[in-house]
């Protein structure tokens, strides 16, 4: 997504200077045949233009987002109380339509008009996903993402039919329900990160399987002790017991123990301490636990201390639980004190959390049983709106095409932003898809 800041500093809405607490996002389309966002930016950036002001326009010719107000500025986009809670975004409309009265129009070039509407829809999905992350909004939550038309029905916006009127009359299958789901998918399928942060949440259900974790550790450390392989499922069960992602705990153990080789590690295997707990200075041996299960449980509890302010469900056996500033690291990336906004965290080394994320991504790319992932393989896609990109990552351009539901052959897998399981290249040559949304078969 390309975003250009074009704040409308001369518009009276800007000079009014009111701020809001963002509780939702409202999607509009401009209601006149003008695909160029810059034309709106130019015409609305005047002291005399006192009718309306929005947070962004999406250009119909290339999908560029022009941000016109800071996101928490109170906009004048929906003519009612929605202005107090919702960010307003306008999609530009095709130049080849002609309004004949109200929301009704004729169209002289359907293919071009559809292409414009698709482009703005897709850019809006990306923009709304970014804003949901930023403001910690659930895109599927009631009244969070609404169209102007839906806003009217809810009594928070004036009586307009946008943007659904555009999609319906152009014969496009888009609906606001599909839009909300697409936003959710574009957020990477995970829970929203804390406000203003992108990262991997520590609380939640594990994604990696015990088979993947075992295969990963065998590949990294062929001499790994059988007792280590046997205890791998405990990461998932102990993690689930406290609502902590057990696969994150396991990835952390891989980092802390040198893939359970304990070379150069302060702790030894017989201590059942797989996370360096209590090794607060060089030369210290750290805590010991009577069984592997208790060692893993203490690690999970310690992670929960950082990631959440919720009480433990089980009895606290983590001897250092009480020393943690509760909830200071909701995401893995913040476990490193150098990256943590409060300077708190599990470890002092630079990029500590990022190292754990990297290990977890490798685990997720591991084929349970035989590592690494052998290509080609087949995947099943159930979503109809899984987009195809030109490269492995949400930072690469969209092709504008979608897989549709079906079975597809993947010929190459690469890591990339936006998909924890990596990105798969389609055999057809159409591009890359996020494997988070595809089931290997
Ligand atoms: Zn509107």
How is this fold's topology laid out?
Layout: E1 3-5, H1 12-16, E2 24-29, H2 37-44, E3 56-58, E4 65-67, E5 86-91, E6 97-101, E7 104-107, H3 110-135, E8 145-147, H4 148-153, H5 164-169, H6 176-186, H7 210-220, H8 226-242, H9 246-256, H10 292-307, H11 352-364, E9 377-381, E10 387-389, E11 398-402, E12 406-414, E13 423-426, E14 432-434, E15 439-440
The structure holds zinc ion (ZN).
Describe the structure.
By secondary structure, this protein is an alpha/beta fold. Helix 8 runs parallel beside helix 10 (292-307). The two termini are 32 Å apart. The longest helix is centred in the first third of the chain and has 26 residues, at 110-135. A 6-stranded mixed β-sheet has the order 1-4-3-5-2-8, with helices on both faces. A 5-stranded antiparallel β-sheet has the order 14-13-12-9-15, with no helix packed on it. It has 3 domains: 3-186, 3-Layer(aba) Sandwich (Lysozyme-like), CATH 3.40.80; 210-328 and 353-364, Lysozyme (Orthogonal Bundle), CATH 1.10.530; 377-440, SH3 type barrels (Roll), CATH 2.30.30. The chain is 29% helix and 15% strand. Zinc ion binds at residues 28, 148, 160, 162. Residues 28, 148, 160, 162 line the site of zinc ion.
């Amino acid at each position: 997504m390309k975003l250009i800041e074009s704040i409308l500093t001369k518009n009276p809405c800007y000079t009014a200077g009111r701020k809001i607490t963002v509780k939702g996002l409202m999607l509009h389309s401009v209601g006149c045949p003008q695909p160029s966002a810059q034309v709106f930016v130019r015409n609305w950036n005047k002291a005399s233009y006192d009718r309306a002001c929005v947070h962004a326009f999406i250009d119909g010719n290339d999908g560029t987002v022009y941000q016109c107000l800071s996101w928490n500025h109170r906009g004048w986009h929906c003519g009612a109380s929605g202005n107090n809670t919702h960010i307003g975004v306008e999609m530009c409309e095709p130049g080849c339509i002609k309004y004949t009265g109200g929301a009704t129009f004729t169209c002289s070039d359907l293919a071009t008009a559809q292409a414009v509407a698709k482009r703005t829809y897709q850019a809006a999905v990306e923009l709304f996903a970014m804003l949901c992350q930023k403001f910690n909004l659930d895109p599927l939550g009631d009244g969070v993402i609404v169209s102007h038309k839906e806003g009217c029905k809810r009594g928070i916006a004036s009586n307009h039919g946008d943007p659904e009127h555009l999609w319906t009359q152009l014969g496009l299958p888009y609906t606001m329900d599909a839009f909300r789901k697409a936003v959710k998918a574009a957020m990477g399928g995970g829970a929203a990160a804390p406000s203003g942060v992108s990262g991997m949440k520590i609380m939640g259900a594990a994604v990696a399987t015990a088979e993947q974790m075992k295969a990963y550790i065998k590949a990294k450390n062929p001499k790994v002790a059988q007792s280590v392989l046997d205890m791998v499922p405990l990461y998932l069960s102990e993690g689930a017991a406290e609502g902590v992602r057990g696969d994150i705990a396991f990835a952390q153990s891989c980092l802390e123990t040198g893939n359970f080789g304990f070379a150069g590690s302060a702790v030894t295997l017989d201590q059942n301490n797989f996370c360096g707990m209590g090794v607060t200075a060089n030369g210290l041996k750290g805590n010991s636990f009577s069984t592997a299960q208790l060692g893993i449980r203490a690690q999970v509890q310690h992670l929960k201390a950082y990631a959440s302010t919720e009480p433990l469900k089980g009895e606290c056996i983590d001897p250092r639980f009480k020393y943690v500033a509760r909830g200071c690291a909701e995401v893995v990336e913040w476990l490193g004190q150098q990256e943590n906004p409060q300077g708190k965290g599990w470890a002092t080394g630079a990029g500590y959390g990022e190292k754990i994320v990297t290990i977890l991504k490798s685990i997720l790319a591991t084929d349970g049983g035989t590592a690494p992932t052998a290509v080609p393989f087949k995947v099943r896609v159930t979503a109809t709106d899984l987009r195809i990109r030109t490269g492995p990552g949400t930072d690469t351009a969209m092709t504008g095409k979608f897989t549709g539901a079906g079975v597809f052959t993947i010929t190459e897998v690469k890591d990339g932003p936006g998909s924890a399981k990596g990105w798969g290249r389609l055999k057809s040559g159409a591009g890359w898809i996020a494997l988070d949304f595809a089931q290997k078969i």
